[in-house]
TrEMBL record:
InterPro entries, A to Z: Homeodomain-like_sf (IPR009057), HTH_RpiR (IPR000281), RpiR-like (IPR047640), RpiR-like_SIS (IPR035472), SIS_dom (IPR001347), SIS_dom_sf (IPR046348), WH-like_DNA-bd_sf (IPR036388)
Keyword Transmembrane helix: no
The protein's name: HTH-type transcriptional regulator
PROSITE patterns according to UniProt: HTH_RPIR, SIS
Membrane-traversing stretches: none
Residues covered by the SIS domain: 123-263
Domain annotation HTH rpiR-type: ranges: 2-78
Keywords, alphabetical: DNA-binding, Transcription, Transcription regulation
């Protein structure tokens, strides 16, 4: 069990002042915190015990003990580079290869600590019984949306991608109970996605979101929440690393679907594989 420190970093800027105070204390000296009681941590960071407990809820954890266990797990792990690497104009090709690859790897590595296995399972189950799956994404998230559609199309599920707001809204109003609307937004604040999901929910559809970790308008309106790590804002390659993390989550979700329904789905995958293989020269 790990991911305590990365969760704290992810939500830090959005925390209330009192919660941020204890979060900053934990990040400054995690080795000490794993030895502290909730009472002692509250005393040392200058907040109430209730504030510490509220912080654990903001981190989607069951309590202070889980937070300590996750921090302890972080401390025992050898991780990749501690931070995302800035890419500067004029860098050598060798430096760019290293920086971009490190950022992509770190984005996936951090996402592993944030992704809930239970939420992935719920998403797979809901999607497997849906009449129709709408997928909404704009900008860089549209790439991830099309990747999900391509995968679901291979197993003959009815899914459509909408990257234009009017098209999203037009489809959303025609959804019904039993349908799924899957909104992808790295920031979780894309207005088109918020309004489209809100309309889909009004029609009775189940909502799945894929956003960076933490509270956001998109994740708040979703029934099932999938998260990726966030990339520091000063990273020019942020859109690349976040897209890689999204694609990784989509791969995880798709393989979960295949694993749960393998007897039904494997023949469909083989059928599409053979069809495509005939278009290639030997």
């Amino acid at each position: 069990m790990d991911g305590g420190l990365i969760r704290l970093k992810e939500v830090l800027t959005g925390l209330k002042p009192s919660e941020r105070k204890v979060a900053e204390y934990i990040l400054a000296q995690p080795e000490q915190v794993v030895q502290l009681s909730v009472h002692k941590l509250a005393e040392l960071s200058g907040v109430s015990e209730a504030t510490v407990i509220r912080l654990t809820r903001s981190l989607s954890m069951g309590g202070y003990q889980e937070l300590k266990l996750r921090i302890a797990g972080d401390l025992t792990k050898k991780s990749l580079s501690d931070s995302y690497q800035e890419i500067r104009m004029g860098d050598t090709v060798e430096s760019i290869i290293t920086a971009v690859s490190n950022n992509n790897q770190k984005s996936i590595h951090d996402t592993i600590s944030l992704l809930s296995a239970e939420e992935v399972k719920r998403a797979a189950e809901v999607m497997s019984t849906a009449r129709k799956i709408d997928i909404y994404g704009v900008g860089a998230s549209a790439v991830s949306a099309y990747d999900l559609k391509q995968k679901l199309s291979r197993i003959n599920w009815w899914c459509e991608v909408y990257c234009d707001f009017h098209a999203q809204l037009t489809s959303a109003v025609n959804l019904a109970e039993g349908d799924v609307a899957f909104g992808i937004s790295y920031s979780g604040e894309t207005e088109d996605i918020i309004q489209s999901l809100t309309e889909a929910k009004r029609q009775g559809a189940t909502l799945i979101s894929l956003t960076k970790f933490g509270k956001s308008p998109v994740s708040d309106c979703a029934d099932i929440r999938l998260f990726t790590s966030s990339v520091e804002q000063n990273i020019r390659s942020g859109a690349m690393a976040s897209r890689i993390a999204q694609l990784n989550v989509i791969d995880v979700l798709f393989v979960t679907i295949v694993s749960q329904l393998h007897e039904e789905i494997i023949p469909r995958l083989e059928k599409t594989r053979l069809a495509v293989s005939r278009t290639k020269r030997v």
